[in-house]
Write a structure and sequence with these properties.
Structural class of chain A: alpha/beta
Family (chain B): Belongs to the MON1/SAND family.
Order of helices and strands of chain A: HEHEEHHEHEHHHEH
InterPro entries (chain B): FUZ/MON1/HPS1_longin_1, FUZ/MON1/HPS1_longin_2, FUZ/MON1/HPS1_longin_3, Mon1
GO cellular component, one term (chain B): Mon1-Ccz1 complex
Largest sheet of chain B: 8 strands, mixed
CATH class of chain A: Alpha Beta
CATH architecture of the largest domain in chain B: 2-Layer Sandwich
Number of helices of chain A: 9
Radius of gyration of chain A: 21 Å
Low-confidence stretches of chain A: 1-29, 159-180, 256-274
Bound molecules: guanosine-5'-diphosphate, magnesium ion
Strand order of the largest sheet of chain A: 2-3-1-4-5-6
Distance between the termini of chain B: 34 Å
CATH architecture of chain A: 3-Layer(aba) Sandwich
Pfam families (chain B): Fuz_longin_1, Fuz_longin_2, Fuz_longin_3
Number of domains of chain A: 1
CATH superfamily of chain A: P-loop containing nucleotide triphosphate hydrolases
Helix content of chain B: 40-55%
Radius of gyration of chain B: 25 Å
Number of strands of chain A: 6
Oligomer: heterodimer
CATH topology of the largest domain in chain B: Beta-Lactamase
Helix content of chain A: 25-40%
Protein name (chain B): Vacuolar fusion protein MON1 homolog
Low-confidence stretches of chain B: 1-28, 38-160, 591-616
Strand content of chain B: 15-25%
Largest interface: A-B, 62 and 72 residues
Largest sheet of chain A: 6 strands, mixed
């Protein structure tokens, strides 16, 4: 596939590139992200809401994600980049770019929607081919608040008092003292299903089950709405990618090799339709 | 095509009617304008009360704005057009038996076609029946759907408010303008109000109508009833329908539908839409557009409220030319290979745009593509901390290929100044993000953000003409800036146009003037419209298009005088109001690779190939 867009580099282009690189003052270089995490999954499973809950401590009606959105999160002394994606990646072929060199991939589904789990395997797993070879996988069932009473109270992720929800609940409703918790929906995906998928992901990636993190640790049920398990998810992953950060820092000390720097810079993609 | 013809027609008329003296020098303007007004009266006096009589009409009598069609009475009116024949020859088939005032049953048909085959008289009657059914459907969209829609809307979890709207209610029916998108197979793709599922039977009827007329080798174009105009548009495998009570012209509604179509293309490309439906005729395109409804909703809201869409021109933020130049230079310096457009936006208006040299030679950025981009930015702004990298197709540039857009705000947390960088290389995110870093740094050192923050739209009072309340001025291409982006300038809407309703009312007046100026049957160059609450004057010349709104007390003579002053003021301020000389840079040494479609054929659209099949 890629071959189709690659174009033989013309001498003038090389010259051009070299010039650009050499005139770029070192001081303007961005803080290089130490590590990359990608959130994948079908549209509407709540990827953006999860990230929003984690970074902004809020749940609000997010606006649909276009393409991919890149975030830098400061984690102690490290810069962690997180790509939030739209869920249409394999359609326009940018998925591999978002995933390139990723140290962790969050495969997200909606616990009330069996299809969203199936899509992970059918459509999204193959996008991770460009991820780092020691990439860590998390399987995340979001919207747990819709199916599990215990997920309706927040355990993390900015506490229970999220502004919007709190506002709704404190509205004076004399006739009805406490609004009843929304009726539970049918849970279509059990945690066991997710763990089974985790096993298949490892097999697909050719990873040993024994040396990989266990399924119990890597399968999460979350609610971006209440914050349930959200901090846990991100912080567990951040801790787990620390070794890759250190490794990368060591390797990257003086060399310019950078996983993020696309290989495309050597083989220039010329033109949107070339 | 039809539209092109129209425009030629208008321009031609302008050319022949107007002596070369129509340069905007002060003395000639008023003379010219006076002359045009009086000759206009003469030229169009036959039956146009809207034009002539209004001039002398009592100011107290506010005329309802009427669609330009002659028979906008109770009759329903269907126009069809033969597809192969670009020229539109109208032939009105009146059905006398039905043309009573009884609006439910009254229809008149005008079918244009190349042959006067009598078959179509039969089909005509059938279409009337279909139409009556469509009308019924339209009134009782709920009636047919009652059983399922309620249930279906009930189960739609997490949909935004209007998607949940009950399509059986009066409120749903009362929306000023409905827009539907469906596939040729009649599958719902998008509805502006209410969920698509709940409307599937309605969409089915629309599709039946479209395909029935098609089977007679005609294309259904529009249906008029006393309250609604229904406009159909087919583009490839998609059918778009607008049901409007806004009294806009068919042409305007059609242009709006084209925006909707192009926004869909901007997300998927035309080639892949075609390919998807080739593979599977009844594919549910919502699978690919899920989550994009808000982008289309946002577009339709903008179309209703932002005159840029009406004028097909870009509104740029007034800025001292020295500041605009310095911003352009900052953008010009921050480049990377395959970067083709650098665009700076503040408060949803253009600050500056820099284009790749080869690209600008090859094609200029169409204003409507820029509108689609601005809408996309607006729709994605909820989560403003991040940097966005997304494939985006510019349908007027090349409907079959993607650009890759980098979108980032430069002034978090306010997020009013937005940088948009377009590359042809999908892998270029980090390189392009680096350009942003440079731009940010340069802007910081020049304190540009503070200067930009001070920039704002202007008040009409700055023009210094007492009776002038508002205007929109759109200069046309002139030879020395031929590749210029089409722009217009307009002051803030101020009292009495402060409330949303009043703003909309003024826009509606402008829309009506616009549709009459651009009427295909009888284009006008000048309209002087006296209404109860204001007086409007619209004027189109070979150099510009101008819409002005005066207080109702203005006299014709003082209006002419005011326009003279206004044109003089614009001339004086033009460096501030417009981007005069769009700057360029060079990043793509091999332009033929990055340019417009058509050259390379199908294999050039392969970037969309990945994964299309697995989706089907
Ligand atoms: N009940 C509930 N709704 C959620 C949750 N997370 C997201 N949503 C809703 O699901 C919809 C899609 O969320 P979004 O974050 O845009 O999904 P994305 O397409 O995966 O990014 C939105 O209407 C959210 O409000 C959750 O944990 N619980
Ligand atoms: Mg999202």
């Amino acid at each position: 596939m890629i071959i189709k867009y690659s174009v033989v580099v013309s001498p003038s282009l090389k010259a051009n590139q070299r010039q650009v690189t050499t005139t770029m003052p070192e001081s303007t270089k961005m803080k290089k992200p130490d590590v990359k995490i990608v959130i994948l999954g079908d549209m509407n499973v709540g990827k953006t809401s999860l990230l929003h809950r984690y970074t902004e401590r809020k749940f609000k009606d997010t606006i649909s994600t276009v393409g991919g959105a890149f975030f830098l999160k400061q984690w102690g002394p490290y810069n962690i980049s997180i790509w939030d994606t739209a869920g249409r990646e394999q359609f326009h072929g940018l998925g591999s770019m978002y995933c390139r060199g990723a140290a962790a991939v969050i495969l997200t589904y909606d616990v009330t929607n069996w299809q969203s789990l199936a899509e992970l395997e059918d459509r999204f797993l193959s996008l991770t081919d460009t991820a780092s070879t020691d990439c860590i996988f998390a399987i995340v069932g979001n919207k747990a608040d819709l199916t599990d009473p215990h997920a309706q109270a927040a355990t993390s992720g900015g506490g229970q008092a999220d502004a919007e929800l709190g506002g709704v609940q404190t509205q004076p409703l004399p006739a009805c003292p406490t609004p009843p918790a929304s009726p539970l929906l049918n849970k279509q995906v059990s945690k066991e299903d997710a763990m089974a998928l985790y096993g298949r992901v490892l097999r697909y990636k050719g990873l040993e089950e024994k040396t990989s993190p266990p399924a119990e640790k890597m399968c999460f049920e979350t609610s971006a709405k209440t914050g349930y398990n959200v901090d846990m998810l991100f912080e567990t992953l951040f801790d787990m990618v620390l070794p890759s950060i250190l490794k990368k820092r060591r390797e990257g000390e003086n060399s310019t090799v950078d996983l993020e720097e696309s290989r495309g810079s050597k083989r220039t993609k010329a033109g949107c339709c070339a | 095509m039809e539209r092109g013809n129209q425009e030629n027609g208008i321009r031609e008329e302008v050319k022949t009617d107007e002596p070369s003296s129509l340069k905007c020098t002060d003395q000639t303007v008023s003379k010219e304008l006076t002359r045009t007004i009086s000759s206009e009266n003469h030229i169009n006096s036959e039956d146009d009360d809207a034009l002539v009589d209004e001039n002398g009409m009592k100011a107290s009598q506010e005329r309802p704005l009427e669609p330009q069609t002659k028979d906008s009475t109770a009759d329903n009116h269907l126009e069809t057009e033969a597809p192969s024949d670009g020229r539109k020859e109208e032939e009105t088939v009146d059905l006398p038996a039905l043309s009573s005032v009884d609006s439910a049953g009254a229809h008149s048909l005008s079918i244009s076609e190349d042959t006067t085959d009598s078959i179509h008289d039969d089909s005509g009657e059938f279409v009337v029946t279909m139409l009556a059914r469509a009308k019924l459907e339209e009134q009782g969209m709920g009636v047919k759907g009652t059983s399922s829609p309620l249930l279906e809307t009930g189960t739609a979890v997490g949909n935004p408010a209007h998607q949940d709207e009950d399509v059986t209610t009066e409120r749903w029916r009362q929306h000023r303008k409905h827009v539907f998108v469906l596939s040729e197979a009649g599958k719902p793709i998008y509805s502006r109000y209410g969920s698509e599922e709940a409307l599937s039977s309605t969409m089915g009827v629309m599709m039946a109508l479209v395909s029935f007329v098609q089977s007679g080798d005609n294309i259904i174009r529009s249906v008029y009833s006393d309250e609604h105009t229904v406009v159909f548009m087919q583009r490839g495998p998609l059918v778009l329908v607008s049901v409007s009570s806004s009294r806009q012209s068919e042409q305007q509604l059609r242009t709006e539908l084209l925006y909707v179509y192009n926004q869909i293309v901007s997300m998927l490309t035309q080639a892949s839409i075609a390919r998807i439906f080739e593979h599977k005729k009844n594919y549910d395109l919502r699978r690919l557009l899920a989550g994009s409804e808000k982008i289309l909703d946002g577009l339709l809201n903008l179309v209703d409220s932002d005159p840029s869409f009406l004028l097909s021109a870009v509104h740029c933020l007034p800025l001292a030319s020295s500041l605009r130049d310095s911003l352009s230079q900052i953008l010009q310096k921050a480049i990377t290979p395959n970067l083709v457009f650098s665009i700076l936006i503040a408060k949803n208006q253009l600050l500056t745009i820099v284009q790749e040299k080869m690209v600008i030679d090859d094609a200029r950025l169409d204003p409507s593509d820029l509108h689609l981009l601005l809408n996309l930015i607006g729709a994605s702004s909820a989560f403003q901390a991040g940097e966005i990298w997304t494939p985006i197709c510019l349908p007027n540039f090349n409907p079959d290929c993607y650009f890759y857009a980098y979108i980032s705000y430069l002034d978090p947390p306010e997020c009013t100044v937005c940088l948009l960088l377009l590359s042809t290389d999908k892998e270029a995110f980090y390189a392009v993000a680096e350009c942003k870093r440079k731009i940010e740094e340069a802007m910081q050192s020049q304190n540009s953000l503070t200067a930009i923050a001070k920039a704002q739209s202007y008040s009409v009072s700055q023009v210094g003409v007492s009776d002038l309340r508002h205007f929109m001025y759109k200069p046309f291409d002139v030879p020395d800036n031929y590749r210029q982006l089409t722009q217009f300038t307009s002051p803030e809407m101020e009292a009495p146009y402060c409330s949303e309703e009043e703003k909309m009312r003024l826009l509606d007046l402008y829309r009506d003037m616009h549709s009459r100026i651009h009427s295909s049957s009888r284009p006008l160059k000048l309209i002087y419209h006296v209404a109860e609450r204001e007086t409007l004057l619209a004027w189109v010349t070979s150099k510009f298009e101008l819409y002005t709104c005066f207080s109702p007390l203005v006299t014709k003579a003082s209006a002419i005088n005011a326009i003279t002053k206004l044109l003089r003021w614009i001339k004086k301020e033009e460096d501030r109001l417009f981007i005069r000389y769009p700057p360029k840079y060079s990043t793509t040494p091999n332009p033929s690779k990055s340019s417009r479609g058509g050259k390379g054929g199908a294999d050039h659209t392969d970037s969309t190939d990945n994964g299309v099949l697995p989706l089907l």
